């Protein structure tokens, strides 16, 4: 059996599709399945059982002999969440329980970290484990992810194979339920459909023009390829970046979305809200050398390729992956 937590969510459900495509059907899907909107993400997929996240740790104890691999992708991912108790419970303490169960029963683990741990990038974007103590996340979500990464590295007892993946700006199908936390591509397409236009944040720094703030956008299909790689690699444990390795502007992203919808770009700019202006990231770019160095060589989608596939094959027809 292969476990996928967060299986009703964006990346988790796309991973379930990837595993099905590769012939894996004995899957245990773990999540809070109370949101009907999210549950559409795994409709039509093949799996063995749904397990509520509150029952999962005990379920491992009863079924560990049959588990081959655990992908722990479930988390509270709202970067505007300021309830530390919620983030501590779901992102930190829960992941510690999963980790300890993997140690106890000899199970391999891949878990989701985040590029939010890098903050404004004062220390750069290199997945150097020696720098974790110096990182300055901009929000409680990023703090919760960095705290777990630091905790994992200090443990004397670790799973025989484990990887933490720092996801950068992931986009793609199955994010319909994410509302404000969905990708800018999703919001651009929705705005184009409703108004024919898109509004991006102005720049409030002299070294960046409006719309030229940059992010490392990575297509979810590339993310699931890397997850699948680690399921078979099972060596070189540690913390890795997972982005495209190339920063692109929000203007590039919005323009590509217009083109994929076969429309001329109509992009205007609005002030960045003052409550996030001081903590707004103007640049992120994953350093990917560490992943390449252990033998991963599949090319990633360019921004234009990923956006085109997403818009034409999923957003326009309203399909799920």
UniProtKB/TrEMBL annotation:
EC code:
5.1.3.20
Q: Which residues cross the membrane?
A: none
UniProt-recorded Gene Ontology molecular function terms: ADP-glyceromanno-heptose 6-epimerase activity; NADP binding
State the active site. Answer: 141 (proton acceptor), 178 (proton acceptor)
Q: Which InterPro entries match?
A: Epimerase_deHydtase, Heptose_epim, NAD(P)-bd_dom_sf
Going by the UniProt record, its keywords in alphabetical order are: Carbohydrate metabolism, Isomerase, NADP
Question: Start and end of every NAD-dependent epimerase/dehydratase domain?
Answer: 2-243
Question: What positions belong to coiled-coil segments?
Answer: none
Enumerate the residues binding substrate.
Answer: 169, 180, 187, 201-204, 215, 280
Q: Which reaction does it catalyse?
A: ADP-D-glycero-beta-D-manno-heptose = ADP-L-glycero-beta-D-manno-heptose
NADP in keyword set: yes
**The protein's annotated pathway:** Nucleotide-sugar biosynthesis; ADP-L-glycero-beta-D-manno-heptose biosynthesis; ADP-L-glycero-beta-D-manno-heptose from D-glycero-beta-D-manno-heptose 7-phosphate: step 4/4
Residues engaged in binding NADP(+):
10-11, 31-32, 38, 53, 73-77, 145, 170, 178
Q: What class of enzyme is it?
A: isomerase
Note on cofactor: Binds 1 NADP(+) per subunit.
Q: What does the comment on domains in this protein's record state?
A: Contains a large N-terminal NADP-binding domain, and a smaller C-terminal substrate-binding domain.
Q: What does this protein do?
A: Catalyzes the interconversion between ADP-D-glycero-beta-D-manno-heptose and ADP-L-glycero-beta-D-manno-heptose via an epimerization at carbon 6 of the heptose.
What the record says about family reads: Belongs to the NAD(P)-dependent epimerase/dehydratase family. HldD subfamily.
Subunit structure, as described in the record: Homopentamer.
Protein name listed in UniProt: ADP-L-glycero-D-manno-heptose-6-epimerase
What species was this sequence derived from? Pararcticibacter amylolyticus
């Amino acid at each position: 059996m292969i476990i996928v937590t967060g299986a009703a969510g964006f990346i988790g459900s796309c991973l379930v599709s990837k595993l099905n495509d590769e012939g894996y059907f004995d899957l245990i899907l773990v999540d809070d399945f109370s949101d009907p909107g999210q549950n559409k993400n795994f409709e039509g997929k093949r799996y063995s059982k749904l397990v509520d996240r509150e029952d999962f740790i005990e379920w491992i104890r009863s079924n560990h002999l049959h588990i081959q691999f655990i992908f722990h992708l479930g988390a509270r991912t709202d970067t505007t969440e300021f309830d530390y108790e919620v983030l501590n419970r779901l992102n930190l303490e829960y992941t510690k329980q999963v980790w300890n169960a993997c140690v106890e029963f000899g199970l391999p683990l891949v878990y989701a970290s985040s590029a939010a741990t890098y903050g404004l990038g004062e220390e750069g974007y290199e997945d150097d484990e020696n720098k974790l103590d110096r990182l300055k996340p901009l929000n409680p979500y990023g703090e919760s992810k960095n705290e777990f990464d630091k905790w994992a590295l200090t443990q004397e007892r670790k799973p025989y194979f484990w990887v933490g993946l720092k996801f950068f700006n992931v986009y793609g199908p199955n994010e319909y339920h994410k509302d404000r936390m969905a990708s800018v591509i999703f919001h651009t397409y929705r705005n184009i459909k409703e108004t024919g236009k898109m509004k991006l944040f102005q720049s409030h720094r002299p070294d960046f023009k409006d719309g030229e703030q940059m992010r490392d956008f990575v297509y979810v299909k590339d993310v699931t390829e890397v997850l699948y790689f680690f399921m078979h690699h099972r060596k070189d444990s540690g913390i890795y970046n997972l982005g495209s390795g190339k920063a692109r502007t929000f203007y590039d992203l919005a323009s590509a979305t217009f083109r994929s919808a076969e429309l001329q770009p109509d992009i205007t700019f609005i002030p960045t809200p003052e409550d996030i202006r001081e903590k707004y990231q103007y640049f992120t770019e994953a350093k990917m050398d560490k992943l390449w160095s252990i033998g991963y060589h599949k090319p990633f989608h360019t921004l234009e390729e990923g956006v085109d596939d997403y818009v034409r094959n999923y957003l326009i027809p309203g399909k799920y992956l």
